[in-house]
Amino acid sequence: MQTSEVKRESAVSPNTCTLAAIDIGTNSIHMVIVEIDKTLPAFTIVSREKDTVRLGERDIKTGNLTEEAIERAIASLKRCKDLATSLNVDHIIAAATSATREAPNGLDFIWKVQAEVGIIVNLISGYEEARRIYLGVLSGMDFNEQPHVIIDIGGGSTEIILADSHEPRCLSSTKVGAVRLTAEFVTTDPINEAEFLNLQAYVRGMLERPIDELRSKLNDNEIPKLVGTSGTIETLVTIHAAQTLNEIPSPLQGYYISHQDLKDLVKKFASLSYEERINIPGMSEKRAEIILAGAVILLEAMTMLELEKITICERALREGMIVDWMLTHGLIENRLSFQAEVRQRNVYKIARKYQVDLPHGERVADFAISLFDQLFGIFHNWGKIERELLWSAAILHNCGIYISHSSHHKHSYYLIRNAELLGFTEVEIETIANIARYHRKSSPKKKHEDYSKLPDNYRKQVKQLSAILRLAVALDRRQIGAIQSIDCKYDPEYKKLHLHLIPAYPNDDCALELWNLSYKKVVFEELFGVKMVATLESR
């Protein structure tokens, strides 16, 4: 995960750091600032910020984010950055979700944020969004070894997760959200019966597949608990509490609403105009516009799941982003530690799905990482994240053979790009796919569309890491583990890179590996302006 650095003005304990997590959603931009105690490890919320910017209000003809929506988002993110800076935050992490990933100009928006605000935004898939929501909820609730269904209704999508204390069993992201459905189905105020029935039927149809899949992952006699997160559900719970308790609990964590009470609220919202909904205690002006569609999504989900109540959890995507950051930085070793291996586990999952020759893939990955480490500071200065992207591409480089051996490098790109690689951002998945794609045949060229759409820094990663991967593939040409290890020595005076190869078997001249290396090294030599000389050590 990439982070934006914020300069600290005062000395702090080496056992603590402050982190700001920004969620750029379809309806709102949320930021939470936390102080992390590395010795526990745990985090304490220092500040929260929310701004309803309606980024999901897209151009009807093109589907693009509108200039007005982009400007509102940029202004909001500048305020977030200013607040984070004023609180001496060490790191800022940001993720964009449904509206940005669906818009044709979504990546342009992300680069504009980086250029004008100085915040690096990670675009994440719906499945990755669901995984991070799970992490957020798990960090704030004890599942007591019982399965939980988590539902998060956003502006553009709804994430439904089946999970237990150890891992998510089922992750889904469906294109039904409060803003999206309001724009597409609601034109009358109050809503007329025909529109209401159409809205209900559409939601039911869209949720049928993910809920059927979720049900298939439940064991016999398991009855999960239902947990709700984020703005729509928090508003419904707030309104219910105001009506039944005449006060709003603080915090809301643990408060629940029944299926029947939710049904009554939906009926009430459908009978009221926007102006009347605004006056409901606990309702904000912006939420009043979209609450009916959001409430219908929740009601239909609860009905289809046959669950009678939903409990609120105040932790969701933003807190999940924080947990994920702590995991990737090695700060968590307790019950959440299993989630730290999510990247590697999912790479292996995809490898098995496409019947990759894993012993060969792992040998290639070992060679690639060995070259990466030995050439660090000489030919590249990439770090831990890029090292993992190279490893992932090396494991999966031949997965395209699952489709066809002919042009399998191109098939590998397609399979990786469309795989559910959890733990990675969209641009990281694109980078892995491109590195794997260029392990053979043509080197990366700007005329290649999938490569050219990457930003400059990522194109440089693909160029350099795919050149290393080519060498690693050549070193296991016969796929029998003929080369045991490699030792690199660079002679800067003559610009020569010496590769000393140690064979695995006595009397094996490794002729095919040496020949393939001489063929594959050309791209590396041209890219780095070096002459490569490979020699086989005697055994």
* Strand segment tally: 15
- Number of distinct helices: 19
- Mean pLDDT, nearest integer? 93
What fraction of residues sit in β-strands?
15-25%
**Proportion in helices:** 40-55%
Globally, the shape reads elongated
Give the N-terminus to C-terminus distance in angstroms: 43 Å
CATH class of the largest domain: Mainly Alpha
Q: Which architecture of the largest domain does the CATH hierarchy give at level 2?
A: Orthogonal Bundle
Coarse structural class:
alpha/beta
User: How large is the radius of gyration?
Assistant: 26 Å
CATH H-level superfamily title of the largest domain: Hypothetical protein af1432
What is the number of domains? 3
Poorly predicted runs: 7-11
Structure description:
Mean pLDDT is 93; it is low at 7-11. Strand 13 (483-491) and strand 14 (496-503) form a beta hairpin. The protein has helices at 67-86, 98-102, 106-116, 126-140, 178-185, 193-216, 231-245, 259-271, 274-278, 285-305, 317-328, 342-353, 358-375, 384-396, 408-417, 426-437, 449-452, 456-474, 511-528; strands at 4-5, 16-24, 28-37, 42-52, 91-96, 121-123, 148-153, 158-163, 168-174, 225-229, 256-258, 309-312, 483-491, 496-503, 531-536. The longest helix is centred in the middle third of the chain and has 24 residues, at 193-216. With 539 residues, the chain is of the alpha/beta class. The chain starts with a strand and ends with a strand. Helices cover 47% and strands 18% of the residues. Helix 7 (231-245) crosses helix 10, helix 13 packs antiparallel against helix 14 (384-396) and helix 18 (456-474) packs antiparallel against helix 19.
